[in-house]
Structures are given as structure tokens and as C-alpha cells.
Amino acid sequence: MSSNKFTWLPRLRSAFTVLAAALIGATVLGTGVADAHSHITHAEPADGAVLQAGPPQVSVTFNEKVEDPELAVSGPDGNTYSVGDVHVDGRTLSVDLAPLGPAGLYTTHFTVTSKDGHRIEGQRTFTLAQPGDGTAPQQ
To answer: What is the C-alpha separation between 76 and 97, in angstroms, rounded?
Structure first.
């Protein structure tokens, strides 16, 4: 009987080492891709804020520069209160507001393109506690 009956053991260890390295690499690369999407780091007014008076504008700041921004604010009456073009200052997007109207929940809707090319959309809300004296501008 030969003393080399376990000659396959070093090859098996090498195969397991290669497999483990591949799994670790895939995990690290997969995490990097998931973290590549843009996300909001700050919003004015803050998400969920309750305001006594309408702000002159809303802004959203992302963790990185974004492209093709769209930013609009709608009121509890379903009308749009944002006016003019989206302003871009580095990672911050803002849009001017007409004087707000009814008290209630206002929603800031955004759509942007991340650096990785993915289109991202979302929203933030604030509540106007007291009715404003404005009416929705004609769009």
C-alpha cells in the first residue's frame, strides 16, 4: 500500500482557498455597487417638519453631484407650488416656491441621475400648520 493515499488533500485546500477568495471578492464588489447610488444627506425643510409659514424655497442635498434633476412641490390640494427652474449648487438642488395655500401636507418630489447612471426618485414631506395666503400658480 502506498503512503501517498492523501495526495489530493493539498489540491482540495487550494480549491477551497480560491473559492473563498472569490466569494470575498464578490461580496466586496457587490457592496461597492450597492453603495454607488446617490442618497439625500440633508433637506430643507427637514423631512416631516411642521412649519408655521411657507418657506421661499425647498432644497435637497445629496451625497454626491447628480445629473438631470427634477424637483417639484405639490400641496394638499394637489396643485404644484414650485416655480421656475431647479437651481444646482454642487450637491444641492433647490427650487423656488410660490406662496403656499392651504394648511396640510406638502410633498417635495425629486428625480435625479446618480453618478453610476441609475435614475433615482423619491420624496420628502413637510406640513404647513397655518394656511398661507397663496394660491397655486398657473402651470
So the answer is: 15
Sheet holding 40-44, edge to edge: 40-44, 57-62, 92-97, 82-89
pTM for this predicted structure: 0.72
The three three-digit cell numbers of residue 112, written as one number:
435625479
Cα dihedral sign, 11-12-17-22: positive
Reduce the DSSP state of residue 28 to 3 states and report it.
Answer: helix
Query: What DSSP designation does 80 have?
Result: B
pLDDT 10s digits, 36-82: 678 999 999 999 999 999 999 999 999 999 999 999 999 999 999 99
Q: How far apart are CA 16 and CA 55, in angstroms?
A: 61
- Amino acid identity, position 130: Q
Name, in order, each residue with C-beta under 8 angstroms of 14's C-beta and a sequence gap of 6 or more: none
